[in-house]
Amino acid sequence: MEYPLQFLCRGLRTVGLVLLYYCFSIGITFYNKWLLKEFHFPLFMTLVHLMIIFILAAVTRTLMQCWTGKPRVVLGWSQYLTKAAPTALATALDIGLSNWSFLFITISLYTMTKSSAVLFILFFSLVFKLEEKNPCLIVVVVLIASGLFMFTFESTQFNVEGFVLVLLASFIGGIRWTLTQILLQKAELGLQNPVDTMYHLQPLMFVGLFPLFLYNEGLSLCLSEKLFRVSELPSLLHSLLTLSAGGALAFGLGFSEFLLVSKTSSLTLSISGIFKEVCTLLLAAHLMGDEMSVLNWLGFAVCLSGISLHVGLKACHSRGKAGQVRLQSLKNSSSDILPLLRRDGCSEEEEDHEEDH
Known about the structure:
mainly alpha
């Protein structure tokens, strides 16, 4: 009974971590759409979220340091500006443009268009040689691109401006996740823990997004009665509280992704992400009244099949690579043992030869 019990506990833990990830990921999507219906300042909202994430990351780092007794990593200025800055700028633009698009498009169109980020991640992974060339990747690209076309074709709630913003965010997201992978693979930086990564990236993200905020929203926000010209203190506190809630959700999302990957695998996160898109579209149609035709659903299914194929290819590649590593280690160990055996054999022959004499 011990093994079935362990299997059940492991399964329940995985389901719990996936549901926690879903709560934060789907929750922040609907939160952003809900908030921006009345508060039309997405870039300012993103800046507030960045500040909240930085504060929560700093507090968490302090607690972790007190708990473990080990100092947390702190990057020097040269590494900070050369290694972390490009990732931070790409991340800030990706998140800022994604939030901006909620002013114009539905959650379903946002979710579907954002799925195209896989194409751009794949493209930049090939450019930076993080991904090996594979003919099957052409099928992945065709499925995702054709699915996106079918989803947006004759859509009654299609908006060009919002669509372009999400597509641009997806393109920058491809750069973002490629640079993030490179950043996390640099073991000497010590940013494998997402709390440390968030702590270091948020200030640079804030600085990178602030000029765009000033240009697009600075004057209108100063003249708005939602924040700076508010007449009642309770209204101001309510606005600040609702804005801060998004930062807590974003921090929880990053932490839940880390827990899911560390306790299970990155493949579990990828597969969970596929089903998360389905849940998001179903909830958007039920709660937000998003209209989707049969052709739109079919396009979504085609796009998901492309993403699923990409996840499957990566899983097979990872297993093949792990097998090659094991085989190479066996070869190395055998090459180390054989000379020792030969030496032992030679020494025994020499001893027998001496005894004969």
